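In this supplementary section we document a worked example of the pipeline. Step one takes a protein sequence of length 409 as its only input; no multiple sequence alignment statistics are reported here. Step two produces a three-dimensional model, which step three serialises into structure tokens for compact storage. The input and output of this example are shown verbatim.
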Amino acid sequence: MYAWPASEVPALPGQGRDLRIHDTATEGLVTLDPGPVARIYVCGITPYDATHMGHAATYNAFDLVQRVWLDTKRQVHYVQNVTDVDDPLLERAQRDDIDWVALAEKETALFREDMTALRMLPPRHYIGAVEAIPGIVPLVERLREAGAAYELDGDIYFSVESDPDFGKVSNLDAAAMRLLSAERGGDPERPGKKNPLDPMLWMAAREGEPSWDGGSLGRGRPGWHIECVAIALDHLGMGFDVQGGGSDLAFPHHEMGASHAQVLTGEFPMAKAYVHAGMVALHGEKMSKSKGNLVFVSQLRRDGVDPAAIRLALLAHHYRADWEWTDQVLQDAVDRLGRWRAAVSRPDGPAAEALVEEIRDALANDLDAPAALAAVDRWAATQEAEGGTDIGAPGVVSRAVDALLGVAL
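The serialised model returned by step three reads:
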């Protein structure tokens, strides 16, 4: 599977800062110190309804992570999956009387278009669940051989009790885990499971549903969590720098994935930091496909909204915060974009070197994009009120906003 084209990231004078970011597992800020190549895995979409503002906010957060790293002169090895076979996708395809493959391809193509328009830097590896199946099957077989998996009516389940570090990602108690498992794709009430929390690794073929040859596992398709584990281990290995996604993925998805990988490799942890973005609401409720309360990037673009304004609307909120999309949020972003573009359109202006450092400092401090925006606002206000004599300043500001915030002025 291919990703989307990369926008050019301007090089800035000076040196970026190492990133301090909130780690869900330790429940505090950690300073990331990758080697020359920083490694990040971000969970991708299930392509049956893309790209709503919740998606956009999540990928914006991890785009900022990449930009901070690039500013430190590191390379970035970014991997993202596409869950292109799963129950929600199959259910939507049946509802709309469309082939599930065609639906996945259509929505993935739309997602690529949206990411390109928003100037999100693409992953080096963009891998679909279906194409990952040849690498998933051996991992499930290994878990079964190690006694960490068991069969139930043809399905293969992972035993969470096989991992002594299970629970160290989300830090939830068993009761909370059980509730979230039921809400987020698990089946804690299924009779015969060794532990209600045990997740499925391999689903035996069901009539009328797609399935693949699983070797000793029989025909079927992979569970949700093992998909990401196979892709991450194949392309990044254990101990990569950041595992990212929305806050609703901390449990069960990232918790289960970490356990799968830790049992498979005997190493801990799977990722050095687990980073989660907040949820975006509309009309008082979290945006979700099941509720249908979605604002789509593609629709805003069709309505003539500048993608740079959409990006500024996302950046106005701290990545970990839960917030609500409103018409005013968008209008504020449109107005801000207009002020910034007017400010950099002049031939000279106030000195910009200190502003570049303010943006760097803000982003290095747990991706504080609102603080970075406020710094640019102050520079633009000074430009409007007083002007300046630094001929190169507007160009420096324009390049910094592009390189660090992904906004083209």
